[in-house]
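User: Before I run my own analysis I want an independent prediction to cross-check against. Here's the chain; please return only the structure tokens and, at the end, one sentence I can use as a sanity check.
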Amino acid sequence: MERTVEVNETEFVFQQRTEVETRTLIYDYKKCVGCGMCVYACPVNAIELQPVHDIALGLDMPPIMVDHTRCIFCGICFAFCPLNAFRFIIDGFELKKEHTPMYLRGDVKKLENCVNCTICYKVCPTNAIERRVKLRREDIPIRNEDVRGKIIIDEEKCKLCGICVEFCQAFKAVEGGGLKPYERILVDEGLCDYCKLCEDICPNGAIEVEGKRVVEDKLPEIAEVVIDEERCIFCARCVKACPYDGVEVKKPIKGKIVLYEGLLDDKCDLTGCKACILICPTEAWRVEDGKLRIDEDICIFCGACKNACHQNLIVVRRYSIEVGKNDTPWTEGWFKTVERILKEQPAEVVEESEVEELKTEVEVKIEAGKAEIDERFLKKLEKIEKKLKNLGFRRSIELDQKR
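Assistant: Structure tokens:
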């Protein structure tokens, strides 16, 4: 067996090579916030948390360290990372989380109410939402010449969705912040030819144009919003920001944040610290009226803020963890991972047989309710079948069971 580690820009590439297979675990420390869930998830205590408080304040170092000499390359850290900071590859095949016996599972759905505007992709912290533009004003060559007109935006009807801004350069946005990408939409009439097409694309009927329509037919769909679930961390920022109820998110972790309110005034330095605010991957923390506040609607209960608070003023309580699982005989060992994360307890020393169970069955793949076993796993089954045909091998198993 050979184990190596390489550093490539922001990624640590850990590899284990044996005669049977090669396993690669890739850790991108820039995606990691030091939540510590992998520390508790790891069955062999191969992961150690680093000084998250200092990292939150600007120290450029990985929030966790992986001891590759102890790592068994089971993929549990990959399966349960809420920030998707790990990738896991076996013999060149990159696994998805659903390929593992058990994994942290959330859900995100684009609903019929979606108007394919710009808000959700603007507020998404992981670029999991893409707005694919199909048509802009500049793609329509016909323009009005010497047409005098007028354009009005009804600010009471306008929901600041930004569709007009990305469609036509005559619209300008006053940038906002947080869950509100735009503060206001303005019009540069020097760039407007009063074509009236913006009336078509506004989902709120907030734009009125005096001018001349350049095309007779109504415009087709000008853009499409697409969600990449593999990048999504299920924070629900998109849900809270969307004025159309166009998206639905089911969080994988349910919990609560508890602040030691009585100690905040004395111990919390909102001027010089703000580590919890800086480390939060969803911008759930904020200062409001001079007080520290948490928006649990967009919190993923990862625990990074707790680890970043050097005054121990934050408690993260996880009540439940939603998992996806594949029915294999080895799932029970993975259930212990969930218990450890909920209780925030490191793993006890495990037997070698348990280690083999944990690391062997990550290749089981379940899709559409049917088990589909890849070619590598079939080859292993063939090897096991050959061994079972050996009388001495079967006899040794029987003796072990009797013991």
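Sanity check: Residues 154 and 206 are 5 Å apart (CA to CA).
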